[in-house]
Amino acid sequence: MPSEPPPDPAPAPQPVDDVTDDDRMQASEKNIEKMWKFATKFAEKSGSFLHPQREITEFLVIGLAKHIDELGKPLCPCNFYEDKQKEVDESNFWICPCEEMQKWKYCH
Q: Is 78 one of the annotated active-site residues of the chain?
């Protein structure tokens, strides 16, 4: 009996608007730099890939930096949370790298 092909690893990335100066101003430069280093090093060490559209990776990096500024931890900015602080305090399920990143080896 022939085996079925593996499922698509994840839906195709959706385009985003270019990251604006306002977006960058919402996060500290220190944490933006820290999250760029984190994302790059994580990709190198884990065999993962940064998104081929730089502005999507930049959106992620800025979102992580903003969450560090606001919450103290890099909560994944790609997901919706009813209560971000509660998510950070009670779970590390969505702390970057999130489960999807670990499973599919690239940021969605």
A: yes
Distances (CA, A) of 66 to 8, 58, 70, 90, 98: 31, 12, 6, 19, 16
**Residues 29, 33: Cα–Cα separation, whole Å:** 6
Sign of CA dihedral 38, 78, 22, 72: negative
Residue of 78, 96, 98, 107 marked catalytic: 78
Give CA 65 to chain center in angstroms. 10
pLDDT in tens, 36-52: 999 999 889 988 888 88
